[in-house]
Amino acid sequence: MLLPARSPRPARTIDGATHPPPLLPRSAGTLALTPARALQRPAALIGPHLIGPHRTHPRVMASPAPPTATAAATAADAPVTGPASADTAGKPIECKAAVAWAPKQPLSVETVIVDPPKEGEVRIRIVATALCHTVRTRERERDRDAAGRVVVFPSRGAGWGQGRPVAAMRTAAAGRNKLRKRVATKPCALDPTSILPNPSFRPSQQDKEQQQTKQTKHKTKNKKDAYTLDGLDPEGLFPCVLGHEAAGVVESVGPGVASVRAGDHVVPCYQAYCGECVFCKHPESNLCVSVRAFTGKGMMKADGGTRLRAKKNGERLFHFMGTSTFAEYSVVHEQSVAKVDPKAPLDRVCLLGCGVATGWGAVQNTAKVQPGQTVAVFGLGAVGLAVIEAAKLAGASRIIAVDTNPSKFAAAVRWGATDCVDPGDLPAGVPSVQAHIAGGLTEWGVDASFECVGSVAVMRAALECAHRGWGQSVVIGVAAAGQEISTRPFQLVTGRQWKGTAFGGWKSRVQVPQLVERAMRGGTRLDDYVTHEMPFDRINEGFALLHKGECLRCVLKF
Q1: Could you report the per-residue pLDDT of 110-128, keeping only the tens digit for each?
Q2: Which of 434, 415, 414, 411 is nearest to 423 (CA)?
């Protein structure tokens, strides 16, 4: 993480426009960052920073009508008053956003109108927003029927590996490549075909035919829904503005807001913190319920409405996870705003709003990994690497990284992994990846395992490789809607513990600022998670890279 104390960099002129100096140096000639951290680069190697078009000022609109039954229609007809004004407080703002109008559609980058914050709300100018896998986790699992009702697709792991022959897991190199190609379109980093609930079971011909039918249907669904963007919102409401991993500056606040004010640098947090509910007061929980009933419905608590509407037709847009950061401006609840050090680079600390913070917290808060313990990490995306980083920092003596994509192993080793396992390339005679870890690489299993994929089959494997007597397995990944986890009860009777974590257990408004301070002191790999930076207009291109597994985090700037 870059420290703010360094010599100032001059402003630069690009395409006739003067741009502010970059907070972080970048390699010249490409938007993709090198793995080396910027602070470790010699000054002579630091080239010009590639940035997107400079932010255009928001257009200020006339103040909306009082909140009445016709307020939405009145505000939608409000004329643009003219050029941008320095005083936008209390007025609707016209700005750019990526709108998800429906499933199976790319995001539409267009102009939206963001209304002023009401009581207990904060309007934020988003400076940087990152693309997170959790936005795509359920994009293949939901659709809507003609009546607009949510229809759940077959899950990623449904029927996979239920009694498949052990030989199927030990194919030749060509066969393994074909297997990886099949799962490449899924957000699952571990191939569940390598996980056998009963290694001695052999399927009948009917079982094989049913298995083949399930897989064929599932692959068809994945192709058809490649551009569906839904996310973690259980209701799957459309149209909406997605995004939940960002950082920005407070533009204005509504009545009653005391914790932040205009000009404060903040990280919007999908996991709120009020400090008053039973969950906030409990030392082992961060599941605040102060605004959850409203954020789950895409609404704001003050009036049960939204603050987002499309300019082209005036249609109201639902909020997403209480944040909706795929927009230049967003209105969030005060309980979801963490004030951070203004010296922190917002295009890096935005990662602490979800993935990286979740991985760190799963180790520190949920599993509480101790020096000398052993760890297994399933899935080597940004969250999995964050788990590895935190486990190394905690003093784990052995960190086993598990993924079906061996190209990710080099990064895992750089982050701190001591062993790497491809479940599709196990030693002869080993029936499953959990058997390889508990009995092969270790005598009884690992002290703590972490599932960072979102597959119920992988969750089972992670549990069953945990140490007999005291091993614990932490579920981080979000599984398909309606899926259920299973294992033999004896796995739990013999002392293994199954746990889950949301946002790594961090109490957002209190502890996110502490994470930012930790990163600014140095000693973390926060810079390294950002492998791509793009202008916001290229958001769909960024999602394509994320979907292909070609980037850890892509940060978009307006």
Answers
A1: 999 999 999 999 999 999 9
A2: 434
Model confidence band, residue 229 (pLDDT cutoffs 50, 70, 90): low
Q: Which of 132, 240, 350, 554 is catalytic?
A: 132
Whether 553 sits among the annotated catalytic residues: the reply is yes
Domain residue spans of the chain: 358-501
Mean predicted lDDT score pLDDT of the chain: 76
What DSSP element (H or E) covers 281?
helix 278-281
State phi, psi for 262 to the nearest 5 degrees: -55, 135
Look up 354 and say whether it is catalytic: yes
Helices (H), 416-486: 433-437, 456-464
Q: Which candidate in 37, 41, 144, 292 is catalytic?
A: 292
Does residue 451 have an active-site annotation?
A: no
First to last CA, the chain: 22
Q: Catalytic site residue 55? A: no
Residue type, 80: V
Q: What mean pLDDT do residues 210-216 have?
A: 42
For 403, phi then psi, to 5°, come to: -165, 150
Segment 371-380 mean pLDDT: 98
- Please compute the mean of the pLDDT values over residues 258-275 and round it to a whole number: 97
Say whether 134 is catalytic: yes
The CATH H-level superfamily of 358-501 is NAD(P)-binding Rossmann-like Domain (3.40.50.720)
Q: Select which of 49, 133, 142, 532 is catalytic.
A: 133
pTM to 2 decimals?
0.72
User: Is position 95 annotated as part of the catalytic site?
Assistant: no
Instruction: Say how far apart CA 536 and CA 108 lie, in whole Å.
Output: 11
Question: Out of 95, 188, 288, 350, which one is annotated catalytic?
Answer: 288
Q: 295 or 9: which carries more pLDDT confidence?
A: 295
244 part of the active site:
yes
Looking at residue 539, its pLDDT comes to 95
Tokens representing 320? Answer: 């997403």
Q: Is the pLDDT of residue 424 over 80?
A: yes
Residue 292: active-site member: yes
Question: Is 453 within 8 Å of 380 (Cβ atoms)?
Answer: no
From the candidates 123, 138, 244, 467, which is the catalytic residue?
A: 244
Catalytic residue (one of 95, 188, 350, 354): 354
- In 431-545, the DSSP E strands lie at 448-451, 472-475, 497-500, 530-535
Residues 164-184 have pLDDT tens digits of: 333 333 333 344 344 333 333
What is the C-alpha separation between 219 and 488, in angstroms, rounded? 29
Determine whether 132 is an active site residue. yes
Catalytic residue among 19, 81, 274, 398: 274
